[in-house]
Amino acid sequence: xxxxxxxxxxxxxxxxxxxxxxxxxxxxxxxxxxxxxxxxxxxxxxxxxxxxxxxxxxxxxxxxxxxxxxxxxxxxxxxxxxxxxxxxxxxxxxxxxxxxxxxxxxxxxxxxxxxxxxxxxxxxxxxxxxxxxxxxxxxxxxxxxxxxxxxxxxxxxxxxxxxxxxxxxxxxxxxxxxxxxxxxxxxxxxxxxxxxxxxxxxxxxxxxxxxxxxxxxxxxxxxxxxxxxxxxxxxxxxxxxxxxxxxxxxxxxxxxxxxxxxxxxxxxxxxxxxxxxxxxxxxxxxxxxxxxxxxxxxxxxxxxxxx
Length: 307
What we know:
Shape: globular
Helix content: 55-70%
Number of domains: 1
Distance between the termini: 66 Å
Structural class: mainly alpha
Strand order of the largest sheet: 1-2
Strand content: under 5%
Radius of gyration: 28 Å
Number of helices: 11
């Protein structure tokens, strides 16, 4: 006969321990969650595209082309005038003046923030925020939260698309035109172009940094008009930093800034014609269709009522 454990009574039984959770089931849950997130993204993207097709198909009161003075050929004329004049008056002596006529502290100062003109500083945050909103389950959100998600998604998507598309166009232009950078000025001069050189030393015009700065500045000025003056002042000095670190000629910076800003403006006008995010009057003044602050303020107030 087996010995009975004196610590056990007839009413006590030892239940077998639950088996540890298998790795397979944990992995399956992870896969199911990932599929649910992807389904949310596909469903939300379909809604966004359906909204865009519906609104873009409606007749618009805004003419397809801007009024005289804002037409593409007009802006191209302004740009050619500004770039050409700066190439004649400023480019020739800029390199020697910066490197021989200014204290080295100027170079160090402008070098500390010139890289903020790189596109990844704007593409990564706007892309991550937009993707995160797109993968949410919009149907489970309340009306105010869903409205705020829609507004934020459209705004960051506008910034992402404008910066990416204008930057890509600038890259194609600069690698195709093949203008020598200022560091080659002593041997090649400021007017040397080597078409399709495919060499980074011959990618001066237009400035990619200045293109991004111009595009971001116009986007933010249209989205936050009360801060427009401050935004453009900061954009000015950020663009000028490319000259001060001898990375570009003044005409490179002027051309890139004007191109990026014009790209963002035309993109906003197109969205206004589609009745998305912006509206446009007869004078081609672009305004937001709604106040972002009011949207998020209503969301906060609704949260406080339910808390």
